[in-house]
Amino acid sequence: MRKLLALLALVTAPAIAADDLRPPLLLTGQRADVQDLSGRWTYSKDYYRTGLTDINGWVAKSRMQRHRDVDIAAEEAKPGPGFFEFDLDRGPGMQIPGAWNAAEPELRWYNGLIWFQRRFDVPAPKAGTRSFLRFEGVNYRAYVYLNGKEVGRHEGGFTPFVLEVTEALRAQGNRLVVGVDSKHDAQSIPGEITDWDLYGGITRPVKLIQTPATFIDDATLRLTDAGRLAGSLQLNGAQAANAQVSVQIEGLNLKAQATTDAKGEARFDIAAPAALKRWSPESPQLYAVRFASGADAVNERMGFRTLAVKGADILLNGKLVTLRGVSIHEEELGSNPARRMTESAARALLTEVKTGLNGNYVRLSHYPHNETMLRVADELGLIVWSEIPVYWTVDWDNPAVLLKARRQQAETIYRDRNRAALALWSVGNETPVADNRTRFHAALAATVRELDPSRLISAALLVEREGYTVKIADPLLPHLDVMAVNTYAGWYGNDTLQDLAKVRWDLPTDKPLVISEFGADALAGHHDLGAEPKKWSEEFQAAYYRATLKMLAGIPNLRGLSPWVLKDFKSPRREHPVFQNGWNRKGLISETGQRKQAFDVMAEHYKNQAR
Ligand code: GCU
């Protein structure tokens, strides 16, 4: 059936095969020669995008071309008629990475193009090296220039991209200029309307990476169901073909060699040592893995485990697993978040899940999160659901939009496929059932199946109500390994909390079910001690959680929960002047980390479940 469906999806799939979606450069893995360009960058607003094009689509006026490699103050000191209407050297500055909406009051609601500049030197450039800029996330479109030369562009706010700058780089006084356009539109992924904040800007780190002339662009390794360590290594450069490569796992006394083929790719297929300890939430064993070839080496910290669905069960290392989790937006704790997800910020959130909630799982919604979250989840032992922002509605009939979504899916898979914690790829959230929408998601699912057959495919689906019976009639189901649905009965709609006891779930039971969202708003510290607490109070939210957990308990193939949401988060859709003020208050904790009563309800539920 699955092969038939994959065939069906392929029949409707777009022209570009999954293998052709591999970004030309990846530079995944931890390597030595990296210069982090985080820090103070200057910026120049460009509300009418005059730095890109002039009126009527004419070429931008040179006096407005932000990317020009020119010392404007020095030019102005000379005689002559020339002048400029920008100067990134003397412009205001802000801390990068981080969204501009949180950086300056005047930029709080700015949604458009801003140019950023970073000057930098290159310590002791070595002859024969190649140089790359790796952007880990720029929301939403990026136009990149180095020393006045355009070096590349990218669309998509949540996935990395790598640009080679070997020719454009100089030893001193490099001028990196990045145009960032946060504007989304009917053809972007996600579309224009979401339930989260703008967060425009260079929101994740930018790094200068220098490599030997032939380098390791990507390397993977995973534990197969047959008990072998299988993987690949891709070289890039003139000497990529027919080259010796190796993989070494400290602590397992394992070292294996391989030879690359004509395309520079080598494959590993090694019997897993008997001493190998598998990764699990209870025992998140990570190993230092070193891939090497010639003068280059890449280090990874990796866990090894197997994952499968068998009937209505999810199996991790062959054992049943129930997902005890919560949904999370990429937004750090604090009253003015800038989507600056540092390791300590990620650890603060994920520790609340692991030890606060007694959780073993996180739904990283609604888009690929900062790679740091995945690495901390690997370390803490939290299974991860990763999601592509095909959210609510996109332009289903537009092949170019489908290609964008498939590219984002591929960019995420190539970035995260070495993370043991990552178990589920979600191809969307709450999209209304229609033929064009199902074809779109099915093509995405087929792309996932081709690029990463080792993980499970899901999507957060909408349910239908017939009185008190909840049903699901979604033709996407056969393409999914794990069924997931969002439900808000008792918060949205007319159900009282007492009504939830009447709800009957009439869903398929032939595959695992995750309730990917349920939740209710509460303002932390707002209480209602009455017999029937009103909405917005912590007491109502706690009662909603107790009633919902009771309603869900009877579902026979329920294998996971990720209530909406760990932490209150910023959203322009939430403007109640007493309870919201621009925050979605469904968090189990407030934006500053204050636990609400519902947090304890969930923690108790998971503690009992984990016994
Ligand atoms: C939806 C959606 C979330 C949203 C939530 C809410 O299900 O998936 O992104 O924030 O409901 O209404 O709070």
Automatic annotation (TrEMBL):
Listed SUPFAM superfamilies: (Trans)glycosidases, beta-Galactosidase/glucuronidase domain, Galactose-binding domain-like
Keywords for this protein: Glycosidase, Hydrolase, Signal
Domain Glycosyl hydrolases family 2 sugar binding: 100-212
Nucleotide-binding in keyword set: no
InterPro entries: Beta-gal/glucu_dom_sf (IPR036156), Galactose-bd-like_sf (IPR008979), GH (IPR017853), Glyco_hydro_2 (IPR006101), Glyco_hydro_2_AS (IPR023232), Glyco_hydro_2_cat (IPR006103), Glyco_hydro_2_N (IPR006104), Ig-like_fold (IPR013783)
Domain annotation Glycoside hydrolase family 2 catalytic: ranges: 308-549
The enzyme's E.C. designation: 3.2.1.31
Keyword Signal carried by entry: yes
Domain Glycoside hydrolase family 2 immunoglobulin-like beta-sandwich: residue ranges: 225-305
UniProt cross-references to Pfam families, sorted A to Z: Glyco_hydro_2 (PF00703), Glyco_hydro_2_C (PF02836), Glyco_hydro_2_N (PF02837)
UniProt superkingdom: Bacteria
Molecular-function GO terms, alphabetical: beta-glucuronidase activity
Signal peptide start-end: 1-17
Family: Belongs to the glycosyl hydrolase 2 family.
Listed name of the protein: Beta-glucuronidase
